[in-house]
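Subject: Sanity check before I submit

Could someone independently write out the structure tokens for this chain? I want to compare against mine line by line before I put it in a report. The sequence has 352 residues.
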Amino acid sequence: MELRAVAAALDALAPPGLAESWDNVGLLCEPSPPHAVRTLLLTTDLTEPVLDEALARGAELVLAYHPPLFRPLRRLTPATGWRDRLLLRAAESRVGLYSPHTALDALPRGVNAWLAAALGASTSSVPIQPSTTLTYPTKGSHRVEFVVGQAEQLEAVLAKVQKIPEVSSIVTLPARAEGEDQTRVSLNCTEKAMQDVMSLLSQNGLYHMTEILLLQKPLLPQTGMGRLCKLSKPASLSALIERIKNYLKLSYVRLALGVGKTLESQIRTVAVCAGSGRSVLQGVEADLYLTGEMSHHEVLDVVGNGISVILCEHSNSERGFLLELQDMLVTHLENKVNIIVSEIDRDPLQLA
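---
Independent answer below. Compare away.
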């Protein structure tokens, strides 16, 4: 498949619009076309050993869950650091780079849903920060409604409103105000067009009878950041620790006990966020937080409120999902691309 076709398919699977506003997702490095992709390598982090592996295994595209290109670049030279050398080498070797990151987190079958499954098959969950549709259900983000009294005035105002760009769905309905028959006009428009509409209404003496409504995008089912999980049966903290270690294939996790809690404390609700969970988990009421990493003071704040914390290390809370993603992509790309998972990629932290 051509690279742009693969990138479009990846965008369709995890729409970039679902990503957090601070994130950098999508096709980050595109070798000059034509560029066919026969092998796609999946990794959590793009490091120099992983790029060596990608080249050795003949990958024309690397999907790195964490964006290898995140902050704006002022220059790109071999002397500016290991990450710049890595990007240069990928480009010179004609290896494309793609990152889905938080767009993949938000999916109903994404990273957070996968991590939540560590708690047990009968666990139910909902997103902590639900995602909305990427577009409004109608054209425009605002609805403007106003009342016009005289038929001649209505005709003149409508003629002018219809000429304003980005105005749509103009509807007129009979109305009665102050004992007189009038007409209520409703229209949808963008924020920019709303300013033009308001200026027009003000000129025609209608401003004081105007209502402005901000339209809301509908929620997407089971889509969003983090997961608030409810166990079908309460379980002890020690039992959940073993479930999580077995699920993630880890020999250890880090644990901070909430004030007044023990390993035998019963857990009913768990707030889950892959990676670094502070911004998503902060303030969520639960018996336990499960995430990759939190700072010392963040942990103190949580346990002080009686909530226990399990930390798996940042990428350990994400890496296992690559095997799920591999299966998803085999189907999504219709077996047109060989999907392989890095054998080199691993969390940089280890016990010593």
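---
OP: Matches mine. For the report I'm noting this point. DSSP finds eleven helices and 17 strands in the chain.
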